[in-house]
């Protein structure tokens, strides 16, 4: 098997929300212990077990990386990143002993177990490495040409929208790259982001990838992920109160910054039951990541109106398996009533004419207790303990899927 050169060159080559969540963990529950499990939701043509040896070597390299002084200075310049957190990152490196790769039949098993200040930082790196190792043998001139053709078609579609419809819209179309975890390769993601930034300055608002944001001088985008909320299911608060505890923790850390809240850890209805006037005023908006986006968005608008908050003062961010066409449809539907933005992942960074991998690396346990996400989309729920899952459904009065 030929040697694969290192795929991750910088610890900034991850999504912004890893830093924003890590800062809260370090400041508010530094002793928390997390366990994460890898899952591939589709059936790739080549078994992922064939990547094991290369993946092990890539992880060895990843765990030798440190933040450079220039990278630390960049982080220190972000308004919401605190000085003591950057001091911590100056000493930081990932510990190899916390991640284990094995084979279970024809499945690749990746497990991360360790303090959350370490464990949570592996996810994006691992997913992007698995993706690039899988697609590297398929990386041909023909595949790249098809990727370029598709990207240019997307840019042309967005340019047509800008020329023909944008002036008539109440709120502007805002799109960001959210594709690090599912990218075809590191250099392809950079090409995509450069092209979008260069050709669509009024529409393209940034990237979740901190390294690319720094390198290209654009805005890094992101707030929180499901794991942040899930951890609070095991952090000593009453289970029924875990969402309000997580939201309050975020408010105390960022005090008005990073104000887009994720809604689908136990479903939109259960989230809105906890998202009272206090939080609705403090947070700038909500992020959709599962379930029917139209139903979700209408519920959000109705909730703001019920609280006598003008929906036009808030933002809905959509990030669930979006394409450019889907984003435009949602924008046309919602922008007369509320600000909208879109985080597009695989459709930007891995649309090459090949079937993408549907891989995730999810928190399944915190402090020795099971945690879960009850997704609004079938197949996205992930939990290793059916008893806890049933209890969580009971607490939040969510019926079991048929």
TrEMBL record:
Keywords, alphabetical: Glycosyltransferase, Ligase, Phosphoprotein, Pyridine nucleotide biosynthesis, Transferase
BP term (GO), one: NAD+ biosynthetic process via the salvage pathway
Pathway: Cofactor biosynthesis; NAD(+) biosynthesis; nicotinate D-ribonucleotide from nicotinate: step 1/1
A Pfam family: NAPRTase_N
Nicotinate phosphoribosyltransferase N-terminal domain sequence ranges: 12-131
GO CC terms in record: cytosol
Catalytic activity: 5-phospho-alpha-D-ribose 1-diphosphate + nicotinate + ATP + H2O = nicotinate beta-D-ribonucleotide + ADP + phosphate + diphosphate
GO MF annotations in UniProt: glycosyltransferase activity; nicotinate phosphoribosyltransferase activity
Keyword flag Glycosyltransferase: yes
Phosphohistidine, modified sites: 226
Nicotinate/nicotinamide phosphoribosyltransferase domain boundaries: 175-398
EC numbers for this chain: 6.3.4.21
PTM annotation, UniProt: Transiently phosphorylated on a His residue during the reaction cycle. Phosphorylation strongly increases the affinity for substrates and increases the rate of nicotinate D-ribonucleotide production. Dephosphorylation regenerates the low-affinity form of the enzyme, leading to product release.
SUPFAM superfamilies: Nicotinate/Quinolinate PRTase C-terminal domain-like (SSF51690), Nicotinate/Quinolinate PRTase N-terminal domain-like (SSF54675)
Enzyme class, first EC level, given as a word: ligase
PANTHER family for the chain: NICOTINATE PHOSPHORIBOSYLTRANSFERASE (PTHR11098)
HAMAP family listed in its UniProt record: NAPRTase
Chain's role: Catalyzes the synthesis of beta-nicotinate D-ribonucleotide from nicotinate and 5-phospho-D-ribose 1-phosphate at the expense of ATP.
Family (UniProt): Belongs to the NAPRTase family.
NCBIfam families: NAPRTase, PRK05321.1
The protein's name: Nicotinate phosphoribosyltransferase
Organism lineage: Bacteria, Pseudomonadati, Pseudomonadota, Betaproteobacteria, Neisseriales
């Amino acid at each position: 098997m030929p040697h694969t050169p290192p795929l991750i060159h910088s610890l900034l080559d991850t999504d912004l929300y890893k830093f924003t969540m890590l800062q809260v963990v370090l400041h508010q529950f530094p002793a928390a212990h997390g366990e994460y499990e890898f899952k591939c939701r589709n059936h790739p043509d080549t078994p992922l077990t064939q990547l094991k040896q290369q993946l092990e070597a890539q992880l060895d390299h990843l765990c030798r990386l440190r933040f450079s002084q220039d990278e630390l200075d960049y982080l220190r310049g972000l308004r919401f990143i605190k000085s003591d957190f950057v001091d911590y990152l100056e000493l930081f490196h990932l510990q190899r002993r916390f991640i284990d790769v094995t084979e279970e039949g024809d499945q690749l098993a990746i497990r991360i177990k360790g303090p959350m200040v370490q464990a949570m930082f592996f996810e994006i790196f691992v997913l992007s490495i698995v993706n690039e190792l899988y697609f590297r043998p398929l990386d041909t001139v023909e595949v790249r040409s098809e990727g370029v053709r598709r990207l240019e078609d997307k840019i042309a579609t967005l340019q047509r929208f800008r020329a023909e419809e944008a002036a008539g819209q109440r709120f502007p179309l805002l799109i960001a790259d959210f594709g690090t975890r599912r990218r075809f390769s590191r250099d392809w993601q950079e090409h995509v982001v450069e092209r979008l930034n260069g050709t669509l300055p009024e529409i393209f608002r940034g990237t979740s990838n901190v390294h690319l944001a720094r390198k290209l001088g654009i805005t890094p985008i992101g707030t929180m992920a499901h794991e942040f909320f899930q951890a609070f299911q095991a952090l000593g608060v009453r289970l029924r109160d875990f969402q309000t505890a997580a939201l309050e923790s975020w408010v105390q850390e960022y005090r008005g910054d990073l104000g887009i809240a994720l809604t689908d850890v136990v479903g939109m209805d259960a989230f809105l039951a906890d998202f009272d006037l206090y939080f609705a005023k403090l947070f700038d908006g909500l992020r959709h990541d599962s379930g029917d986006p139209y139903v979700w968005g209408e519920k959000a608008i109705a909730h703001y109106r019920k609280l006598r908050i003008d929906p036009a003062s808030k933002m809905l961010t959509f990030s669930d398996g979006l394409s450019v066409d889907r984003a435009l449809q949602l924008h046309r539907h919602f922008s007369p009533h509320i600000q909208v933005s879109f985080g597009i992942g695989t459709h930007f960074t891995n649309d090459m004419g090949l079937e993408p991998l549907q891989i995730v690396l999810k928190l399944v346990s915190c402090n020795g207790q099971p945690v879960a996400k009850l997704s609004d989309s079938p197949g996205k729920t992930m939990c290793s303990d059916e008893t806890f899952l049933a209890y969580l459904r009971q607490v939040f009065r969510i019926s079991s899927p048929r």
